[in-house]
Amino acid sequence: MLDMRDQPALQRSHGTARLGIVARHGRPALADLYQAGSAKVFLPRGGGAPDEAVFLNTSGGLTGGDRISFALTLAPGLRLTATTQTAERAYASPGPAAALDVDLTVGAGARLDWLPQETILFEGSHLRRTTRVSLAADATCLLSETLVLGRLAMGEDVTAARLLDRRSVLRDGRPVWSDAVTIDRESLACRTARASLGPARALAVIALIAPGAEDAAGALRPLLEAPDCETALSAWNGRLILRLTARDSWPLKRQMARLLGQLRGSALPRVWQMNGDIA
Amino acid sequence: MAMAAPWATIMATGIFISMAEDRLLLWQWLSPAFPIGAFAYSQGLEQPMATGAVRNIADVEAWVTTTLRFGSPRMDAIFLAQARAGADPDLLSDLLLSYATCPERETELLDQGRAFAALIGTITGKTVSIRPYPVAVGLATRALDVPTEEVLSLFLHGAAAQMISAATRFLPLGQSESQALLSRLAPLFTQLATEAATASLDDIATFTPGADMAAMRHETLEVRIFRT
Predict the structure, then answer these.
(1) Integer CA distances (angstroms), B37 to B170, B193, B226, in order
(2) What is the pLDDT of residues B66-98, one digit of tens each?
(3) According to its record, what are the GO cellular component terms (chain B) (predicted)?
(4) Max Cα–Cα distance, chain B, nearest Å
């Protein structure tokens, strides 16, 4: 399958980046690294014990017919944060949808934080993204995803973007958390409804899927009130979910930084901070 | 003898008599009077009503229409259709519960499913497993010779009626304006039912961030009349 995807195609970006991290003498070590086409992955700490992986689509954005896939396997007992180098831009796609597949596997007792930077949907874009996380029985994952409709600072409106953004977390092969967002012309026409986005143009979800995840709710409740950002929290049965909406991406990212900082007990990925827009 | 009505001719065949009886059962099982406790749930609508964000019939219509078209009722309808069409009930139940946005949504799915299963078990004399409500309805109606679109239309009608009934009692709204709203939505139920009947599990996706967040916040609302 990989071979098929890796065939170069005219005017379309195809790419696969795959990373495997194993434990060597009790420390994380690089075991598998495969990169083809416009997908890359790098470890900011290079040869040392990696604790962060950064995926990148070098084509500079997604458009019709692009196929990018990112994969990561984390061995039992390890902890790793993975993110993306920059915001992902979905550009106008007259033809078929762009496809982005993210496949994450987390071993027993391990914890993976998958915190990609935001996805910006441009007018006329068409993206299908699938994020699949396979957890071993007692593994943990912390996920976030941020969607922004148009470049807000440019005052762009989006009326015709198409998105099917599916996330699923499986524990021992059984679905424990699923979330699927669909955006099309019809739902965008109704987006100012209160049950939809209301005045917001940016939205995000944060999910902690872990045994006892609900125990983290108490420390987060006092953080839910934030300027220019709506936040809702719910936690039950090994799941802690936060949903955020905001008119602009900056207050949304600032609020995400607070919440993720609390959930992680450590700083955000360095590439998030390098953008200079997170305090 | 009076001239036979057209339906009388149709009813002359055994097939259509059986279909008419099945249709009566369908109406009974999906009626608001079927005692699964539907009156106790608002699907998160109590939250914006309590904060004043949803105040009148126009607000209720916008809320109900948006959630039906892009939210959990549409998702539930697809699960119902899949269950009715023979998909694996264990898989469907796990998947539907994994899409729950909050514990109250899980409660809504399971408590109504449990009550429905108990009633169907008594009516049919068979053992009925407890499933999330839309899956339970899909399984129970496998035996009924009625079009899937009809099952889905009635199911969506019930989901809308549940929200409108909650609003009628909470805001309150006049009985006649509530009934007029429910009647206005009939074309939407049939349209969504037709789409859901042929949708696949890959078509399950929503875009109701406001309704999802309202359902999550409902659990910390200080005074609650509804369970969701």
Answers:
(1) 17, 24, 11
(2) 999 999 999 999 999 999 999 999 999 999 999
(3) cytoplasm
(4) 66
In chain A, which residue's Cα lies nearest the Cα of B63?
Answer: A195
A243 touches chain B (CB under 8 A): yes
Which of B63, B208, B216 minimises the CB distance to A232? B216
Q: How many CB atoms lie within 10 A of CB B54?
A: 24
Q: Give me the amino acid identity at A185.
A: R
Domains and CATH numbers, chain B: 41-218 (1.10.4190.10)
**Would you state the structure tokens that stand for residue A194, as one six-digit string?**
């209160």
User: Which pTM does this prediction carry?
Assistant: 0.93
Q: Is B14 exposed, middle or buried (0-12, 13-18, 19+ CB in 10 A)?
A: exposed
Cβ neighbours, 10 Å, residue A15:
22
Contact criterion met (CB < 8 Å) for B210 and A195: yes
Strand-strand pairing, A39-42 and A52-57: antiparallel
Average pLDDT along chain A: 91
Number of domains in chain A: 1
Q: How far apart are CA A245 and CA A232, in angstroms?
A: 9
**Interface touch B99/A178, C-beta < 8 Å:** yes
Q: Which residues of A touch B59 (CB under 8 A)?
A: 194
- Reading the block at residue B10, the tokens are 């149709």
Contact B219/A at CB under 8 A = yes
Q: What are the angstrom distances between the C-alpha of A59 and each of A87, A103, B133?
A: 12, 20, 46
In-domain check, residue A36: yes
* ipTM above 0.95 for this complex: no
Whether A125 is covered by a domain: the verdict is yes
Q: Looking at the complex, does the CB of residue B188 fall below 8 Å from at least one CB of chain A?
A: no
B216 CB within 8 Å of a chain A CB: yes
